[in-house]
Amino acid sequence: MLLGSKELNRRDFLKAGGMSTLAITLGSTGLFSMGGASSALASVQNPTSGFGGYGPLVKDPDGILDLPRGFKYKIISKTGDRMSNGDLVPGNLDGMAAFQGPKNTTILVRNHELGTNAEFPVNGKNPWSKGAAGGTTALIVGQNNEVLSEYVTNSGNIRNCAGGPSTWGTWLTCEETRELGHGFVFEVNPHEPENEMSKTPIRDMGYFSHEACAVDPATGIWYLTEDSNPSFLYRFTPNDRSQKLGSLQKGGILEAAAIDELPASSASTFSNGQRFGIVWKQINPERAKEDARDMGCIRFSRLEGAWFAAGTLWFDDTSAGTGKLGRVYRYYPATNTLELFYESAASNDLEMPDNITITPWGDLWIAEDGSGNDRIIGLTPEGNVYPFAENTLNGSEFAGPAFSPDGNTLFVNIQSPGITFAITGPFARRNAARQRAMSYAAPPASFAPAVSDKLAAFAEKQGMSILEAAALERHGMPII
């Protein structure tokens, strides 16, 4: 299933500044709603190209995972199973990353979002805190997605929710808490499990309720989301930006995003010469949230997933908006521009976006964490929307979608009862051009934020995209 939408590039979208609110929000009325009438569904001329989706989902006779025709899943790990080191697979599977391993294997590093007590804890030999049940495990996956080994990589954490892969083959696992002295980022090297680095918090990356992080490979700067209410968007500039093992442990500067008046040299055509935009304010990492709040930084509702691709940071706010159903933002470090890409108007569009990723062929994939059966939803640079997977087993969320290095396998978790899947099928080939196109594509009509005539005219006058104006207006920029 997918939605048809004429391709609209960034420049054309800007020219739409004179469109009425009705036209801009046409999709939210139901015409392009994913849960609406079948007449809204576009036909797929090549359903396995990946450029328009993969066709309707096929009902799984086992009642676990609905996928498009031609795709299949394999359960490769379950909570409570025996790992190769003799321990049981821990519970609450969450964020995950895939790395190239030796002899054409894939190494998965997987979070376990556990607190201080758990039926299936992470039993490490070198924990940071002996009273904490969270941590990470690794799976070495060989041919035919057979698990060759499975073992603990770090332990003694609380609520390892998401994180992010480094460019040098390690996993940054993030604690989503500020309880019992926890609330830090740890770096996990799957080749040296449970080493000293894995139990050493990177304190300059902040003490707060972390969710996800993503690195800009061009600069070595990390961006971090916070899962609390309110939450803030942070960036960490390492003192050592060599992007090598051990570089993050040398410290750095932590900042939070704010909307403020830009310097006079950036002034717009306002009669008073003011122009507002994104600025970054340095904060004390040991009191990150308090400083961000006191300095008037942007208050989000509850930030979740983050992914960096083709010069763009994608991140989402899972409970933002009037219906508290979520927003998706994109940020361009090169121009210091924040855009509101998506804003849910109804749960049948997309409900509570959580983990996100850019696929090897350039689509944006969003995992839901809402009520009912959660899905993985794909958005294409050409303006199509399609479901790729639906959890028909229970109401648990999808977590940690990660593609194998060759792009032929999707690994993803259902958090509870705790299942890791390997999904194979006719995925589209890697396409760097479409990844770049996704960075500047207009959102599908049904996902675009509602924009008033006044805001559209303001955006055109200021030389902003409508999406940039929407992001700033939602967070307090004065519209004159």
Automatic annotation (TrEMBL):
Designated name of the protein: DUF839 domain-containing protein
Transmembrane portions of the chain: none
To which species is this protein native?
Cytobacillus oceanisediminis
Identify the InterPro entries for this entry. PhoX, TAT_signal, WD40/YVTN_repeat-like_dom_sf
